[in-house]
Amino acid sequence: MLAGLFTAAEDEFALAAMTRKSPLLGELYPGAVPRLRKYLSFHDATEGERSEWKEALHFFVRKLTVKYDRPIVLKSPAHTARVRMLIETFPDARFVHISRHPFLIFQSYENMVSKMMGALAEEKKEELRTEAIRGFSEMFRCFFEDRPSILKGRYAEIAFEELEKDPSKTMRLAYDNLDLPDFSYAEKRMAAYLDSISGYRKNQYPQLNSAVAERLHEAWKPYFEEWGYSHDIAIDGAAPQR
Prior knowledge:
Layout: H1 11-19, H2 33-36, H3 47-68, H4 83-89, E1 95-99, H5 102-117, H6 122-146, E2 155-159, H7 160-165, H8 167-177, H9 183-196, H10 210-219, H11 221-227
Parallel strand pairs: 1-2
């Protein structure tokens, strides 16, 4: 994905800068990681901290709405743990969850860390790995608790594998689940975008270490079970599909 000052990015960056209440800041201040953990779900934060964060989010979205004059789509992995707060802030919000094989999620994360932070000592890599595994577990524990609070017709689930195989069909189903109008208009825009990135090729990762694979399955078992992903390591380095 392209990255820069004028390309789309996760709103978590803006919220971290506005409130200083985000686990994202742990990448800049490793010593603050234990203190920042509560800002993933805010379940253990004070009411004042939750109110400050929600006000910042509301202000940020208002600014985007004024600029673009259309419904705003937020994309931040951390929001997976904040469904309850998001509904409190935006009662009419709709939610889309995209599942992907956990092994690929982990490999993508490790690749991102490697590119963003360069050569790291193995000890530091292990610290980041442990924190990522812990955070992912916490995120989906909260998600499974909060998901029932989403009203019918305001939630859609997408499998990354299906989205990749047939983007148009998958997005049409999401529009139907969310009772959104004008998919024919969106489909044309989507097709043009897909044409513009037709040369893109996904990253290829080496086969996952068996010890790491077992560690992930143990820590993320609810995710594997919820979306039916196998935890057998695939042949030739490709993570198994569900």
